[in-house]
Design brief:
The protein is an all-alpha fold and 235 residues long. Helix content is 71%, strand content 0%.
């Protein structure tokens, strides 16, 4: 009934629920800020949006080929573009959520600075990582039909293992190194830097992340190309 409006309603409802629980009931405040509920909500919202994007890709990838059997068995079709058709709506939802976030930052937050122009360059490599994940999980879902249940658990774990409700600086030094192995950690932290702190990102770290994301996407594509040889047999 709401159509595209759900792309705006869902992140707003999630923001309201998490803010009510963590800032209202548990009285959590974000370290290094004035301690206001608005700052906490905006900071958490950045993490929720980026995690929500990856979570949506994780949830839909295992069923991507199983739900499109005709493309595999009955017609000649470039199967490698199926993950792209899955990623596109997730990117649209992410962009809609970011638009809501930017509006809140302008109206109730610290305001925007020119550093926000870095945001596309920060989010784009995460899209490449999600694409690589989709190229790997789509054929895996053909073989292991329980993959959807597995990634559901992984998605929930990823929420709490990512700096969504806490900054990386609150972790011990050795654990920060481990946390940075999570592909969401660096992107969430840098998105907060350019959106809320109004400063430039870690350019060297971002360049390294871009290189790793491209390599991972290429690896995922190669895995998909190998797996497509036997997909029809399993289906």
């Amino acid at each position: 009934m709401l159509g595209f409006a759900w792309s705006l309603v869902v992140p707003l409802l999630m923001l309201g629920m998490y803010t009510a629980v963590f800032a209202g009931i548990f009285k959590m405040r974000w370290p290094g800020t004035s301690g206001s509920t608005v700052e906490f909500a905006l900071t958490v919202f950045v993490g929720l949006l980026l995690h929500g994007f990856v979570s949506e890709c994780l949830a839909r990838s295992p069923q991507l080929l199983v739900s499109n059997v005709n493309f595999i068995k009955k017609v000649v079709f470039p199967l490698e573009i199926l993950p792209l058709t899955m990623i596109a709506p997730a990117v649209f939802n992410l962009v809609a959520g970011v638009a809501v976030l930017v509006a809140f930052v302008m109206l109730a937050g610290p305001g925007l600075s020119p550093s926000v122009l870095w945001l596309p360059a920060i989010v784009a490599p995460l899209v490449l990582v999600a694409l690589g994940i989709a190229w790997i999980l789509a054929p895996a879902g053909v073989v292991v039909r329980d993959m959807s249940q597995i990634v559901g658990i992984l998605s929930t774990g990823l929420l709490f293992l990512s700096p969504v409700f806490y900054p990386l600086s609150s972790l011990p030094d050795w654990l920060q190194v481990v946390a940075l192995a999570n592909p969401l950690s660096f992107i969430i932290e840098q998105a907060r830097v350019v959106l809320l702190a109004g400063t430039a990102p870690n350019v060297a770290g971002l360049a390294l992340y871009w290189a790793a994301a491209l390599a991972f996407a290429a690896f995922g594509f190669a895995c998909f190309q190998v797996a497509r040889r036997w997909m029809a047999d399993f289906l």
